[in-house]
Specification:
Blueprint lengths: L6 E7 L4 E6 L4 E5 H6 L4 H4 L15 E7 L3 E6 L7 E3 H9 L1 H20 L18
Antiparallel strand pairs: 1-2, 2-3, 4-5, 5-6
Length: 135
């Protein structure tokens, strides 16, 4: 790990749900909680080499940041996810590739939605439907 990958300061802006990062090389970046959540380094999201598409995290926030040695931070999200350790180099990679990674994520979402819309038969959960079952 190079010194340029070290994060010198983290500041979470609760209202905007943005994590501000300041790196040792003087650069800085701001990453949304949603972006960080869907790119979690956890095995749950990374899928042991086959990444899982995480959806529905537009409103996710960060509850707390926990230091993890001198090499990273555990981000505890308000949806209960807290199993990934964001190492400094990974955070720097996310910051430097943010636009590209976000576009790839949006494309994966669009593809998943298209595949979902092509299912020939749809089942509706009766407990959540507005159909009257009282007859």
């Amino acid at each position: 790990m190079t010194n340029t990958a070290l994060v010198r300061k983290l500041h979470y802006h609760k209202r905007s749900k943005q994590l501000e990062l300041h790196f040792a090389d003087g650069s800085s970046a701001s990453l949304s909680a949603e972006f960080l959540r869907v790119h979690s380094p956890s095995a749950e999201v990374q899928g042991h080499g086959n990444p899982v598409l995480v959806v529905g995290k537009q409103q996710v926030g960060i509850e707390r940041l926990e230091p993890s040695g001198h090499y990273g931070v555990r981000i505890c999200f308000d949806d209960g996810h807290q199993s990934g350790i964001y190492r400094w180099p990974y955070l720097q990679q996310l910051a430097s590739q943010q636009n590209e990674l976000w576009q790839q994520y949006q494309q994966r979402l669009a593809t998943a939605k298209k595949q979902q819309d092509n299912v020939p038969i749809r089942f509706i959960d009766a407990a959540n439907s507005s159909i009257d079952h009282s007859n």
